[in-house]
Amino acid sequence: MADIITLYDIPSTNPSKAWSPNLWKARFALNIKGLPYRTVWVEYPDIEPLCKKIGAAKTNSISAAYTLPVIHDPAHNAVVSDSIEIARYLDKTYPDTTPLFPRGSQALQAAFQSAHQSTVVQATYLLVIPPSCAKLNHASEPFFRRAREANFGMKMEEFSPLGPARDLQWKALSAGHQAIASWLAQNEQGPFVMGDQISYADATIAAYFIWMRTVFGSESAEWKDVLTWQDGRWAAYMEEFKRFEQVVE
């Protein structure tokens, strides 16, 4: 156990505890590469003290100077912050495992992250942050609420109220995924961003779908609607990720 990687994650009341898309990107990276690790759960108010204690770098987030995910790899005396930097570190340090950034794809992967952010992530926030807040433990909920309300300049209850405004948000989210589906449709074969080869870009897409599924619920009208988008493309896509969804304690 001494040399096993530690993934620091934020728990929720969900049975698996895992929920955050940024944390899922790091977890997918570890699972896709088949690296042994353990999860240590950290409530929001404890993140900064932990990061300072273990020497984790600041991530310059708009909501906090220190954020998760962070990994500690004792085999190489390394502490790495930020999901994409974690993925890059794992590729460099464990080159004999499945590559998250296949050779020659670094620039395209970076461009995809930017495109995904503007096409999907911004449309996701107001819809998914309120139910995320409701899933947090009592130790984290007030911290999460204050930070997000300060970021967006409104009360949590104003983010996505039922009615026309929410309907428009949902349409924007669907349209964003339609755009991504059109990119993937250009591939000659294979379900992934790089066709047959899974990569960090796919972990990014799947992480945001898991976020939605977790906070809305797998039996919710919202998630069932997502599974119909783009003629069921994303339902099939998430089937590909079932083998990487394990949450290792």
TrEMBL record:
SUPFAM superfamilies: GST C-terminal domain-like (SSF47616), Thioredoxin-like (SSF52833). It comes from the Eukaryota. One of its GO terms (molecular function) is glutathione transferase activity. GO terms for biological process: glutathione metabolic process; L-phenylalanine catabolic process. Gene3D superfamilies: 1.20.1050.10, Glutaredoxin (3.40.30.10). Residues 10-98 form the GST N-terminal domain. PANTHER family: MALEYLACETOACETATE ISOMERASE. This is GST N-terminal domain-containing protein. It comes from Athelia psychrophila.
